[in-house]
Structures are given as structure tokens and as C-alpha cells.
């Protein structure tokens, strides 16, 4: 064995990842530890070792590994460590490392040389290809059978030379990737490249996974660490359709804290490590979780693939329950819930965009204004207006130009679109009681989602019951199973199952206080289990 394993199944050390870690440190000292070129974040060594450990063994005699966005080479180093610790070794190991930023070239060359020495020592023929260029452009061209126009050394070149992405046939056997996380503009060359594959991708990491999956041979394995945001929502729906049509999820690993996986880079993101295979029967999926990247205590459940992604769901939302309680909750919610439209209720994003209506905004209410409600006005389940200690506007002037952004004063339920890491729940809802605000109209800022009935207020008891339900631990836990966002979108709230009108009215009548979201009280904790 090359490295001793911790309790979580991760080698506590391995020579090649240690070499890659040293190379990353040299690069960071030279180019600045805080710099993340093109949205890229360096993979910590424990995470890289865990990812490599997800590839099944035994390995084939001919391994063809793709590492897109290779950086300093941490991931392919971890993969080679994993391969060389096996009793049955491959005869040949090809590594294609693709990186667009030349600043990593020296660090990656050091890692390539270390890999070559270790492979030689174990009698494994090592075939390195170091491609300096755009992976999306190269990968799309290769997937479509075109040559990538990047001059290079081709076969037998030395590590560090630029080379075309000459995809082996029938494809790569393995891919390990920590793709860059950055938005893709609609008019960008990357977007046009991906559209050639039939994919409208809004983020580079989705593009990387889509292209990489196309370059795998049938049965090939991909292991990636990515933001969990791809699992739900309309922006990633095209990616999910493409990816799930070609790949089956074998395993997913979740981190129970958002700030630990890339702690050194200061990244606050809910990440998931996914192992997927191209083709094959969709059987069971193993879901594991740990507090952070130390992997000391790893929980584990196995669930049917149909519980992860339902073929009946047109949005193909990916559910990732952490334990059996999550599974029971999902079944109870999906079996007994009604749709929001069945309640005669709609939800929309607040219409007031501050920078567009800046001349009409007022710090405090005055003659000719109406209340403007924003996230800062939500206080323990109710809207508390005005916010005299805040820095956001509290009012908006009512005029012909602003009137179309306002709604009649009434009972509304509002939900924050963005929650902070400190907030214990993802969905934070509050009731606007019309008796607490003056005037005929009210404006809702676009960082809120607003529940209404055809643009007007709700029944007061229905509003109270709806807020109580949304603020419950039941809903929070269910939401976390299929959403990795700190953002709560209208589509998410429409997707939620809801109790019937009678149950919501009963919840509303049972509230003796307007403080509906107190952590000390949760009147619907048993709701899903009692259906």
C-alpha cells in the first residue's frame, strides 16, 4: 500500500499527492494564494485522494485518464497513486491533462515527472499528454470528430508542451475533474461551442461535465467535485437532461458544512462529489456524507436510482437524502402533497428592482409614498416595517411610473430569495399583516418571493398557515434533500408539495402569535409523518 488509510477510507498520505501539494504551494507563493484563475479553485490533497478512491477496481490493463482543468496536477496525481497501490497493475497508463492557464505549467511539469518515476518503478508504461488550451473548445471539437486547432508535440512529446486533444478511441476509460465555477454569458464563445453539442449551459462547470461525459468510452467512469446547484432549478435543467441521458449516478458524497471543502480558498459553496458511469443499468446509488474534507466519520446509505431521479419528473431534479429519515420524509411529502396552484395561490419574485427605480426610493416613508418591503423587514415570521436601523430604503414614491410595480395592500407571505450561512433554515418566510403598514399599495423588493392570489392579498388564516408550513423543520429538511442552493427560487417554491387548504387554514387558526418562525416553536413538525 502506498498510503495508510484513515477511518473514512482515505489514504492519510500518498507520495504523488504530496508532490502535487508542494507544487501547488510553490505556484501559490509565486502567483498569489488568493488568485483563482478563470473561476478555478485548487483541490486539497485529502479531497483529491477521496475522489480517486471512488473509482472501482480492478483497473483495466489500458487506462486512459482525462483531467480537464488540471491546474497543478493534484487530481491526476491522486488517481495514479490510487492505481499504483493495486496488486494488479495496468500495462499502460495514459494521462491527458488539459489546462488553459499557462501559469500552472511549471508546477504540472514537476508532478508529471514524479508520476513518470513512480510508474517506471512499478513497471507501468506512462504516456503523458499536457494540453495547454481551452478544454471546452477542444472537447467539443473532439466530441464532434473535428481536429482541435492547437499545434503541439503529439505522440512522445515532453510534459509541458502544448498538444492537441487527441481523444483515444473508443474514448477515455476514466475522468477526474474539479471544473472551474464561473458564469457563461449567452453571447460568449463558450456558449456557442456548447450549443454545438445541443447544450445551453449557464456555468462552466456544467459544460465541463457535459463535454467530459461525451469523451468517455461506454462504461467509462467520471468523478467530479462540483457545486450542488446543478441538482435542481431551471438553469441547469438542460444540463441534467443531457448528463442523465448518458450517465448514471453511482455514488454521491455530500459535505454537511458549506465552508470546509475549499476552506483555504475561502469558498462558501455547497459541494458534492459525484461518481457517474457512462451507460449501464440504473440500479442503486450510494450516498455518503462527512462534516468536512477530513473524512474521519463518513455516513452511508444505499437507495434505488429511481429515488434519486424520477423518470416521471420532467425537471429531472436530483434528490440526495442523507439518511433513512430523509427518505421517509421524501416519500411522505411526495405522496400526500398538493400543488400550489391547487390552493389558488401563486408565487412571484418581488417587482421592485432598486437600481431601476432608484429615483423613486425613499429612506423613510413620507407623503405620496407606500411601504417597500425587503429582506431586512423579515423578523421572526412577520414583516416588521419600517426598519429604522437599516440602510435599505423603506418606501417608494407612488407615481404613474412606479404604480405597475406595486400591489394592493393585503395579507401576503414573503420568502427570502437568499439566506445567509448563519440562518438555521433555507426557507425563511414571513407574513405581511396589512394593519402593520399604511396606504393603499405596497412594493416588494426583488430579493423576496411573494405568495399572492392573482396579484392581490391572501386570506389571513391561509397566509398564517402557509408561513407556518414554509418555516417548519419538515419543509427545511425536505428542501435540503433536493436543493444545494442558498438561493430559493420561485421554481423551488412551486415545486414544493403543500398541505391542502383545510390543513393550512387550521395551521393559521392555531397561531396565537404573529411570530410564526421561532426556533422554539414548530407546529408542523409531525405533519409529513401524519399524512
Give an overview of the whole structure.
The protein has helices at 15-31, 45-53, 74-84, 105-122, 135-143, 189-195, 204-215, 237-246, 305-308, 324-336, 460-470, 473-482, 490-495, 501-509, and strands at 62-68, 92-99, 125-132, 172-177, 216-227, 247-255, 271-278, 284-290, 299-304, 346-349, 361-362, 369-373, 378-379, 382-383, 395-397, 406-408, 412-416, 429-432, 441-444, 448-452. The protein is 27% helix and 21% strand. With 531 residues, it is α/β, with parallel strands linked by helices. Strands 3-2-1-4-5-7-6-8-9 form a nine-stranded mixed β-sheet.
Summed up, what is this model?
With 531 residues, the protein is α/β, with parallel strands linked by helices. It has helices spanning 15-31, 45-53, 74-84, 105-122, 135-143, 189-195, 204-215, 237-246, 305-308, 324-336, 460-470, 473-482, 490-495, 501-509; strands at residues 62-68, 92-99, 125-132, 172-177, 216-227, 247-255, 271-278, 284-290, 299-304, 346-349, 361-362, 369-373, 378-379, 382-383, 395-397, 406-408, 412-416, 429-432, 441-444, 448-452.
